[in-house]
């Protein structure tokens, strides 16, 4: 058994793309075979994981390891709920639904925290792992603390959620119709973000700069491009995507924010890191891979609802245990050469 496992891991190490495609194929096949309610739940639960993963790809590809994505999801989810609550639940401001204003606030707060992280890492050359952990821990404590001040509890009040948007005609297509054309706005934003992330990283000059910043910053500097600015832009972009994921999840799926324990985000930012490692830094692959973890999250919820005689604590570990399995199997994913390294213009 041990020899078979080692051979499997060696194959995955030599063929990471094949392993990633296999995992994605298994996830999609699993999703296809599940009931409709499970499929729609999986799509909704994939939103924060997928968008945070795309953001993490940009940061890490530029050479900055942002493990503070979990913190960005927390602050964006919390601030979006607070914004809607203060603006007026179910109302509109300047003709725009307060839910959309809440989404914008969540993104801006996430970008603010990403900027703080970028300044600490790029300007002050702090250890990126420690700085990312600091962002997470600050967010983990700040959100429930602020909630206690406003609501007297670590959990916020409930607010309205985004309703489903139905595309006439297309929503009648079997399976694809109710999944993609009769769903909430955050799912559409996830799909749009996937295309935007892939195009920006793979088909634009900025995307090539991001890759060069993480692989060979000296060459990029020699070509006359400011490596610091590229890295700042990439980290801020990770804040945009994470903010979109956290706020979209809070306003589209939860309608509230639970600040107890690991908060309502419950490790989804860390799962996002495993997701883009599984996909070898490909935005589309990361989104498809997120369906695997989101599907297991749906399984966890279904098992709890069904009342099986399995300890709740054990059921809740299902998504996180799957992350460990993935990281063990896909342990040879190649990081960008300069990931985690500081760079000053003119360095040899």
TrEMBL record:
InterPro entries: ABC_transp_permease (IPR001851)
Bilayer topology annotation: Multi-pass membrane protein
GO CC field: plasma membrane
Entry's localization field: Cell membrane
Transmembrane segments: 43-59, 71-88, 100-122, 129-150, 188-212, 232-258, 270-294
Record keywords, A-Z: Cell membrane, Membrane, Transmembrane, Transmembrane helix
GO molecular function: transmembrane transporter activity
Keyword check for rRNA-binding: no
UniProt entry tagged with the keyword Cell membrane: yes
Chief localisation class: membrane
UniProt name for this protein: ABC transporter integral membrane protein
Lineage summary: Archaea, Methanobacteriati, Methanobacteriota, Stenosarchaea group, Halobacteria
